TrEMBL record:
Region (Disordered): 65-90
Composition skew (Gly residues), residue ranges: 81-90
Name of the protein described by the UniProt record: Mannosyl-3-phosphoglycerate phosphatase
Annotated SUPFAM superfamilies: HAD-like
Length: 90
């Protein structure tokens, strides 16, 4: 993979492809727990940072951001829209 290959680029490609095929832009949601997820969390409409079991900073620039209180699978369940996380419609 080249330097431009990251999760954020993949999300942007997927949204463009969906839009071209379906004629409308989808609402995108991204969940991540580490620094390697930051580009993805910045590329989606709604971002969820799962609290990690590490001291690494995960600080995406996204105005629609939710941070979970729980870690691991419980944090992922909390971050999913039906799991208790507060999501805002865009």
């Amino acid at each position: 993979m080249g330097r431009s290959a990251d999760k954020g680029s993949a999300v942007e490609w997927l949204v463009k492809r969906f839009t071209a095929l379906r004629g409308r832009t989808p609402l995108s949601l991204g969940l991540g727990d580490g620094p390697n997820d930051i580009t993805m969390l910045e590329a989606v409409d709604q971002a969820v940072v799962i609290r990690g079991c590490h001291e690494l900073a995960v600080e995406p620039r996204n105005t629609s951001l939710y941070r979970t209180d729980a870690t691991g699978p419980t944090g992922w369940a909390e971050g999913w829209p039906t799991g208790g996380g507060e999501m805002t419609a865009v």
